[in-house]
Amino acid sequence: MGIFIVIEGIDGAGKSTQAKLLAKWFEKRGYNVVLTKEPTDTAFGKLIRKLVLTGGREGIIDGAKISHEAEALLFAADRAEHVKKLIEPSLRTGKVVISDRYFYSSLAYQWARGLDLEWLINLNKFAIRPDLVILLDLPVKESMKRINGRQLKSEFDRIAELQKKVRENYLKLVEMFPEMKIVNALASIEDIHNDIVALVEHEILNKKE
Ligand SMILES: Nc1ncnc2c1ncn2[C@@H]1O[C@H](COP(=O)(O)OP(=O)(O)OP(=O)(O)O)[C@@H](O)[C@H]1O
Ligand SMILES: Cc1cn([C@H]2C[C@H](O)[C@@H](COP(=O)(O)O)O2)c(=O)[nH]c1=O
Questions:
Q1: Thymidylate kinase-like domain: which residues (predicted)?
Q2: How far apart are CA 136 and CA 143, in angstroms?
Q3: Is ipTM over 0.85?
């Protein structure tokens, strides 16, 4: 079996930066790495970007709002394809899979939208659990600086409020899922990478020896 690592955090926490650095770190050591993300680049992921992540991330299409339940189902459908077509086959052939977001994003974000946490957990039961989930924890003030320019000025307060709830949710999820480990995302890119490598060695590689 391979190794499955997920990087999570609020928007702009540095997930894709760290996922790429970690992929390079494994490749240097001779591992075969699959770097992936959610929403994916498949038809379902494209549908999500079109139906959910447009209109100031309000879920607006043609003037009609998509229900939060439908949003959650779309993310779960995208994930099912991701797990069955890429993640499980890659792990079976001994690869290291690094995913920028996974079902913990659905729990943190769709819960923040008002959906029931147990319902979300049950909906995502098919999703195999990773060996390690790195939660890049960042104060919302800093994340809003990092994603500045991506949103309309008029949207700033609403998005900051959502990010605050999402951050709180992630921290609650750490208490429920022992595979989740917090890393301080306020540090420099290099220091965060070193913290992640230390966790990978401690939580996965040393245990496999
Ligand atoms: N430790 C850091 N310190 C300062 N800036 C950083 C740090 N890590 C990443 N950044 C910068 O913050 C921005 C967001 O980083 P990145 O795209 O890696 O975040 P992300 O979590 O993947 O974002 P999103 O969830 O919105 O896709 C980029 O401009 C990146 O260069
Ligand atoms: C997987 C997943 C994602 N989301 C949200 C979180 C972000 O706001 C966007 C994805 O943007 P990114 O720049 O590509 O990271 O989608 C969500 O609400 N639920 C999910 O399951």
A1: 7-196
A2: 11
A3: yes
